[in-house]
From TrEMBL, chain A:
The lineage of its organism: Bacteria, Bacillati, Actinomycetota, Actinomycetes, Streptosporangiales. InterPro entries: DUF742 (IPR007995). It holds the Pfam family DUF742. It comes from Actinomadura rayongensis. It comes from the Bacteria. This is DUF742 domain-containing protein.
From TrEMBL, chain B:
This is histidine kinase. Its EC number is 2.7.13.3. The keyword Aminoacyl-tRNA synthetase does not apply. It catalyses: ATP + protein L-histidine = ADP + protein N-phospho-L-histidine.
Amino acid sequence: MNDDPDPILRPFIVTGGRTHPVDQRLRVETLVSAAPAALAAPLGFERRRIVELCRLPVSVAEIARGVGVPVGVARVLVADLLAERLVTIHASVTDTPNVTRELLERIRDGVRAL
Amino acid sequence: MNPRHRAAPARARTGGTRGSIRTRMAVILAVPTAALVALVLAATLAQVRAAERAATVADDVELALAAQELIHSVQRERGLTSGFMGGATDYRPRVIAQRAASDRARTALDRLLARRDARVVRDGLAGFDGLGELRGSVDAGHASRTAVLDRYTAAIARLNTALRGLATSDDPQLARGLDALRTLGDAKEHMALERGHLNGVFAVGRFTAADYRRFTEVRARKLDALERFRAVATPVRRDALDAALRTGAASTAAALEERALEGAAGRRLGVSPPQWWAAMTTVVDDLRTVQLGIGADVRHRAADLRAAARVRQAVYGAGALLVLVVAILLWLYTARSIVRPLRTLAAEARDVAERTLPAAVEAVQSGERAGPVEPSRLLTRRDEFAEVAGALDAVRRTAVELASEQAVLRRNSAESLANLGHRNQNLVRRQLGFITTLERDETDPGALANLFELDHLATRMRRNAESLLVLAGRHAPRRWSGPIPIGDVLRSAFAEVEEYRRVTLRRTDDAYLAGTAAAEVAHLLAELVENALTFSPPDREVEVQARLADGEYHIAIVDQGVGMDPEALAAANERLRGEGGHLVESARRLGHHVVGRLAARLGVRVWLHDSPLTGVTARVVLPASLLVEERAAEPVPEPVPAGAPPERPVGPVVTPVTTTRNGLVKRTPAAPRRPVRPERAVPPRDPAEVRSVLETFRSGVHRARSADPENEETSP
């Protein structure tokens, strides 16, 4: 027997079995940050942890890690918070139409430099 | 061995028959005893009658002797009168004196008769009533001597005859005494008659032919009576008579009588009447003495008989009493000798039912061998009780063996169940691990929904497997080393029931549960929630509230079903307290037994009661020993990257949250679901900002991929 088995909480109970986020825009890399009012809002369990994590912009994938749920679950939860205007998302790079060639080159350079 | 099935009817039966054996034995003994006592009483009554008869005889003898006294006196009077009338005028004063003596004797007899009336004697006395007139005619001198003598004689004879009608006796000795008394009375009468007759004849000086004939007749009667007396009298009294007839007076009288016998031809006799009278009177008085002696004999004999009868009466009475006492003692002894061993038998049988058998079963269940059945104490006897005790011992032995076999069987089957449950649980655990891995990387909502369905099924399978382990007396293998938030425990409990979407978590106070107990508490709650869901309508929700109070954690699971009647509620609470065995109950109640076992093991109090309006509320109280103060280490990873510019101020106000809402988004009524309106993108950023964003993304992805395995336990 393992010392510590799987987490006690099964992921499906976190969303009540829902897998479809109410907001389709969320992707793994979407950055999320909490609205200032959110920290004072009465939230429970994972939702509170998400808001706490999002004091700085954090990606959905990071949120999933931080809260300890699958990405699919994190997306549903963040989408709920987004609908309640407790978090905001930042426009993704790929979404922005005015990505200049210059910017892309700088990204390329930056990636190379990693 | 259910306590409800034993003892009560058996006790009632014992109480009902307690006196029955005694009663029956009393009946058996009563019949012969009563017969015996009746017999003895009859014998006693016979003795009472015998004593009465003896007393009657004694009284009659008294009467007879008094009458004889009278006769004796009148005989003298007759003799003297006869002499007086024959010409011996000097007899006159003696005649007068003798008349007075006769009257005294008569008075004495009358007194006796006044005390004890005897008609025969009274009738016999009729002849004496004309005595005064007779005496008058004698004094007047105009009566013939013979006629006077005859009247005296008739009166005496009548009384003598009457005396024969007095009581006789069955006792031969007494009868002979009475007979002797009468015969001697006859002899004395005839001797007195002879004396009186010859007194007159001697006074005249010679016999007439008639006088002589009369003399010989009287003498013959006298001799005959004396002969008869000798035949019936006792030797002592016979000798007394003989002695009375051998005295000097008797010889003189006999000699004078000889002279009289020779005077048959009518020649002169030349006998002095006073000499004859004196001699004859002495003889008659002697006879009277003998008569009194016989009277005394008879009286003694009667008294003896009466005393003997009294003694026998007393003996028989005592005998009856003794028989009764012995019968009662016998009854007591026999009843005791039967009832006592019976009680011992009953006590031993009850001891087996209430102590030995349960102890043996308990011993076998805890893995020991059952102790040997101690043999009954009654086996040392050599009677039917020993046989019954032996049979009972055989029953006891068989019962203990059977119970032991049953217990072994139960233990073995419990072990098999535990083994299967263990394997099952292991497989499901691996299955869940695999599902977890799949869920983690799944981004397609449809596929994730399928995985969730699988996850839910597997979770419920795991609960079933763990129920099996609990019923088999094993611990759940899932334990965590760190504390677990109660909110998570509650929600994991909901995850284990089928219709978890109908469960609403109304309020939870924050607290942490010891990781070692978390799985079992979740299991316990899951069983109660499942029960609440089963017994409430499908459109109603089950509400759960959780509150921390006085160091204990209270959880209420409220359903809105039809509720339970008080008996079912009591039975359910009994099961929840861990009482009763799940093997004897209906399989539908298994959930309660699982809860009861878990609650007993964890020290958790669980009970059901009526909800305020409708349905049933299950209350669970987790003791302080299961709660943990605070997390050992705050595992919230700060996701702030190193190079992040602090341009966004970190919200300083992090108010301590007491979660008052349902953790599930769907259930939060305050959360308005509005169509999401995509916000306009922020205006173009400067390169530094973009780089920072990319950096964050990169580091996030990197961490998410690489930190996967080792950080698992830090996530709640």
